[in-house]
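Dear support,

I submitted the protein below through the web form. The confirmation email said the job was done, but the results page showed an empty box. After a refresh the structure appeared. I'm attaching both so you can tell me whether what I see now is the final result or a partial one.
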Amino acid sequence: MTEGVPETVPCRLCAELVPRDAKVCPSCGAKAPWIPDEPTLDPRVIRLAMWGGGIVLVGLLLFASGLLMFGPRAEQGERDHRPPGTASEAHDSR
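What the results page shows now:
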């Protein structure tokens, strides 16, 4: 026994049985009274979008952390880390 697609489905708002091809629920007046069971997007497309979004987010976080650590504001507040007596501008290491 094979079951076909039922001719009537419950309305998404009032749960009254509505014909599958109805555009408006006769009981409550809801437009598109039922939602099809099959997904509207391919699950592979959704998975690809999630991975792509995650990669973009990680890239943006790495870029922002790089700016915070090595950006112009970090260079302005940078101090010389040598001991106080050895700091000279023309230090020659040869």
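Response: this is the final, complete result; the empty box was a page-load delay. The chain has two helices and two strands.
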